[in-house]
Write a structure and sequence with these properties.
This protein has 193 residues and is of the alpha/beta class. It has helices spanning 13-24, 31-40, 44-55, 61-72, 90-103, 117-131, 138-152, 155-161, 174-192; strands spanning 2-6, 28-30, 81-84, 109-114, 165-169. The structure holds adenosine monophosphate. Adenosine monophosphate binds next to helix 2 and helix 3.
């Protein structure tokens, strides 16, 4: 299965990814996690991404696209993957389509996590207290939300037109949302058979 998770920062994409990956045995490809690992390891990619991330801005498409293209060519992604946090711009979405065409595969679904803004702020404040992520700082979070509205929400009509969008109500307990997410994935899998 080839899935994309789409949703604002704090929507629970990372948390729910764990359940999907476990049930469907596909690799979790989180561009945010890859960037954070590179920042921590002080690699050239990490050095390039760090400034954008600390300001809550998107890393330029060329950098992200190259990184994802490399990752999708790895053997574990051959039979499926869960993309979390990519694509985030229409340009990235077109690049992803191109990569999939080259690999002669198709996306099965784009799960859109729907959460009201007020709830996101509360979740992010909580995450900052527990995980200590710099980009969960209030001002940086506002910038990340702005980037989401300006650049990423365009992907919702884009994937709806492609017939791939599935809305998931991401409000509720982690367990409640997990059941909805897994239910949607099971339907996608059944439809694909
Ligand atoms: P995330 O953990 O998905 O919220 O990503 C953390 C940060 O990494 C974002 O605020 C961006 O600076 C950067 N990032 C992650 N994925 C992307 C992407 N697809 N395009 C551009 N920047 C990204």
């Amino acid at each position: 299965m080839r899935l994309v998770l789409l949703g604002p920062p704090g929507a629970g994409k990372g948390t729910q990814s764990a359940a999907i990956v476990e049930e469907f045995g596909i690799p979790h490809i989180s561009t945010g996690d890859i960037f954070r690992a590179n920042v921590k390891g002080e690699t050239p990619l990490g050095k390039e991404a760090k400034g954008y991330m600390s300001r809550g801005e998107l890393v330029p498409d060329t950098v992200v696209n190259r990184m994802v293209a490399d990752r999708l060519r790895q053997a574990d992604a051959e039979s499926g993957f869960l993309l979390d946090g990519y694509p985030r711009t229409v340009g990235q979405a077109y690049t992803l389509s191109g990569m999939m065409a080259m690999l002669d595969v198709d996306l099965d679904a784009v799960l859109h996590f729907e959460v009201p803004d007020a709830e996101l702020e509360a979740r992010i404040a909580k995450r900052q207290a527990t995980d200590g992520r710099d980009d969960d700082d209030h001002e940086v979070f506002k910038r990340r939300m702005q980037e989401y509205r300006d650049q990423t929400t365009e992907l919702i009509p884009h994937y709806r037109r492609a017939g791939l969008l599935i809305a998931v109500d991401a409000l509720g307990s982690i367990e409640e949302v997990r059941e909805r997410v897994l239910g949607a994935c099971r339907e996608v899998q059944t439809a694909g058979r």
